[in-house]
Amino acid sequence: MTVPVPKAELHLHIEGTLEPEAALACAARNGVELPFASADALRAAYSFTDLASFLDLYYALMAVLRTERDFTELADAYLARAAAQGVRHAEIFFDPQAHLARGVALATVLDGLGAALAAAPARHGITTRLIMCFLRDRPAAEALEVFEAARPWFGTLVTGVGLDSAEVGNPPAPFAEVFGRARDAGLRRVAHAGEEGPPAYVREVLDVLGAERVDHGIRSLEDPELVARLVRERVPLTVCPLSNVRLRCVPDLAAHPLPRMLDAGLLVTVNSDDPSYFGGYIEDNYAALGLDDETSRLLAANSFRAAFLPEDERAAHLRAVAAHRFG
Ligand SMILES: [Zn+2]
């Protein structure tokens, strides 16, 4: 078996790593009724037509996650799979509002995830960051509330904020205040933009939210001036090929814009987004694109260049990527 290239994963929603078997086990343990009799029936339900239909199932299945143990096991299962696919550093998103809305306390989510992340270096050889995402289809005032409630974990467990969920019709600007508070609190800032939404949203997350990375950003290609700026400012884009195809942002893998993005000189990375729903973890995304070895090496190096890592750790990872032997 070939050894996967060492890499960082920078666009990964922990709730999107809930595998059907784990969801059913969790449901049984917590006495949560799910309208699916088997893992196969659940897998069959994963046939989305767009972002909105995916999000409907995604939020429905979250109902099984109730206890600290559920969140610890969820994150630990992801880290085990990620390690097997060459991940050495993972910057993990979570959606606190999706859990608060169903009566699960922030401490349950954070302490549960925190236990798995604390064990990750020794257990899986992976360093981590945790990025708290706000739901852009919920009011900005709610994001401010959850931001303030999470302050006790800032700097120790939560080191960044993000913006996710349904993009079309939900521009980034209303979240300027919460992103400003995040900057003042010393947190890193990322935001989804240009997945289904227009290139204007990519400009907005940079100019209004102060985002340091753009999640997806594939529609930037429609705007040559924006591409020139992203290249000039070395803004990383966290691209998720299998997600783009499953959510019909791109018709098929052959039409995926990643090669054009690389040709344009963009700082592109490849990631898995919601891997249990989209048919593959990070190495599966690398493999799906049919890349040659040196392009895989470039993408792996980009993942560490774009990561929120101290410079000595970044340099060590880049040396490992340069020394990697494909074969
Ligand atoms: Zn995402």
From TrEMBL:
SUPFAM superfamilies cross-referenced by the UniProt entry = Metallo-dependent hydrolases (SSF51556)
Q: Which CDD domains match?
A: ADA
Q: What class of enzyme is it?
A: hydrolase
Which reaction(s) does its UniProt entry say it catalyses? adenine + H2O + H(+) = hypoxanthine + NH4(+)
List the GO biological process terms: adenine catabolic process; hypoxanthine salvage; nucleotide metabolic process
Q: Which UniProt keywords apply?
A: Hydrolase, Metal-binding, Nucleotide metabolism, Zinc
UniProt keyword Zinc, yes or no: yes
The annotated site for Important for catalytic activity falls at: 216
Residues annotated for substrate binding in this entry = 274
> What are the GO MF terms of this UniProt record?
adenine deaminase activity; zinc ion binding
- GO-annotated cellular components: cytosol
Which positions fall inside the Adenosine deaminase domain? 6-321
InterPro entries hit by this protein: A_deaminase_dom (IPR001365), ADE (IPR028892), Ado/ade_deaminase (IPR006330), Metal_Hydrolase (IPR032466)
Q: What's its EC?
A: 3.5.4.2
Q: Name one Pfam family in it.
A: A_deaminase
Catalytic residues at 195
- Does Chloroplast appear among the keywords? no
- PANTHER family tied to this protein: ADENINE DEAMINASE (PTHR43114:SF6)
Which NCBIfam families does this entry report, sorted A to Z? aden_deam, PRK09358.1-6
Function of the molecule: Catalyzes the hydrolytic deamination of adenine to hypoxanthine. Plays an important role in the purine salvage pathway and in nitrogen catabolism.
What does the sequence similarity comment in the record state about its family?
Answer: Belongs to the metallo-dependent hydrolases superfamily. Adenosine and AMP deaminases family. Adenine deaminase type 2 subfamily.
- UniProt name for this protein: Adenine deaminase
Q: Which organism is it from?
A: Actinomadura rubteroloni
